[in-house]
Design a protein that fits this description.
NE0471 N-terminal domain-like, 6 strands, about 35% strand
């Protein structure tokens, strides 16, 4: 079974993704520098696929697997959770 994204929303600090299994997972925008720097309109221009999220204009891809594993895009600086 593939867990896929059903919707995406943002608040001031986080990306929130509702998954097909009923969970909602949040990740700090600091993990995704391109999303952090993006405008509201750029963030809203997301494409959902069976495996993740894609922002064409931002050249940003976020996988459900990566979110569930607690991984960002690797370009930002962040600490490791204890």
């Amino acid at each position: 079974m593939t867990i896929s994204p059903e919707s995406v929303r943002f608040d001031d600090d986080c990306l929130w993704v509702t998954l097909s299994d009923g969970r909602t997972i949040g990740a700090p925008l600091a993990w995704f520098p391109r999303l952090l720097a993006a405008s509201h309109a750029e963030r809203e221009a997301v494409e959902l696929s069976a495996y993740g999220l894609h922002w064409e204009a931002l050249d940003e891809d976020v996988s459900v697997e990566g979110l569930l594993a607690g991984r960002g895009d690797g370009t930002g600086q962040r600490g490791v959770a204890a």
